[in-house]
Amino acid sequence: MPLQFVSTVLISGQIMTVGCKEIFRELVELLDSLYGQQEAEAIAYRILDLQFAIGKLDFLLNKEIELPTSWEQIKLELQAGKPFQYVLGKEFFCDLKIGLNESTLIPRPETEELVGLILSKVKGGKILDIGTGSGCIPLSIKKSLPQAEVFAWDISELALDQAKKNAENLQINVDFQLQDVFEWRNSEGNWDVIISNPPYVLEEEKKEMKSHVLDFEPPLALFVPNENPLLYYKAIAEMAKERLNPGGFLYFEINQLFGKEVKQMMENIGFENVQIVKDFRGKDRFVYGKF
Q1: Which domain holds residue 119?
Q2: Where does the signal peptide begin and end (predicted)?
């Protein structure tokens, strides 16, 4: 079959190859009106890395890549404002490629900081992550602490399905369990470390959020009632009081507005040496303490 060239894309049978810089330019043009030039370029680089494993040197050399048959559909979904992580079904987290579905939040850089904070202080033992979603936190911890026993809870079966797939793909052993934290008395186990990045966005904060978050990320994993912003934190801290081994630690990722309130609540329950830690943007983002 003779070769054809269409918009610099080489078509040979059903296989299309093109220089990565051409795809980069195409993506930036597609996304510019949605995100602006700078963010569009950052997203384009991320897509090249996630989908095609194109690094900096590959980009400089304009390495050719093979486009999937779904490429036109991918572009349509990106153009509709769907976050690229959901379009591709994956995101990097602590150097792991984490699969995502519609029931899992997109992992954030702040949560990578939470993992780093934990790993700077925890060297093993029994560890539980509550509200695990994609499993990015326990999988990252188990990868770094293979000697630890790592467990994870979530109320969403779809999220747990994805977390288990991630564990299988990454060949990392985490015990994922379907469990409602408000029904924790029906569970079993004691732990040395309990971690949670629970829903903490107030309903009233919706008006300040971007549409690609509101339209695509699971509300169950995002929002808490305006009148009860510490709903999950109180439940988890009460559970941790009963289930942490002596000298155990509780780690939270928090809404920046409620650092002092979470700290006070933990101290009232009986936690000691409770600390508020800022994220890379200088905002109160993590609280931890010892019981």
Answers
A1: 102-290
A2: none
Q: Is residue 94 part of a domain?
A: no
What DSSP character marks residue 187?
S
DSSP 89-114: TEEEETTEEEE--TTSPPP-HHHHHH
The model carries a pTM of 0.91
Three-state DSSP class for residue 53: coil
Number of domains within the chain: 2
Place of tokens 């060297």: 123
Residue 67 DSSP code: E
CB neighbourhood size of 35 (10 A): 17
pLDDT in tens, the chain (291 residues): 333 333 444 444 456 899 999 999 999 999 999 999 999 999 999 999 999 999 999 999 999 999 999 999 999 999 999 999 999 999 999 999 999 999 999 999 999 999 999 999 999 999 999 999 999 999 999 999 999 999 999 999 999 999 999 999 999 999 999 999 999 999 999 999 999 999 888 888 877 877 777 788 888 788 888 888 999 999 999 999 999 999 999 999 999 999 999 999 999 999 999 999 999 999 999 999 999
98-112 in b/e form (b: 16+ CB < 10 A) is bbbbebbbbbbebbb
Q: Is there a domain that residue 93 lies in?
A: no
Are residues 256 and 198 part of one domain? yes
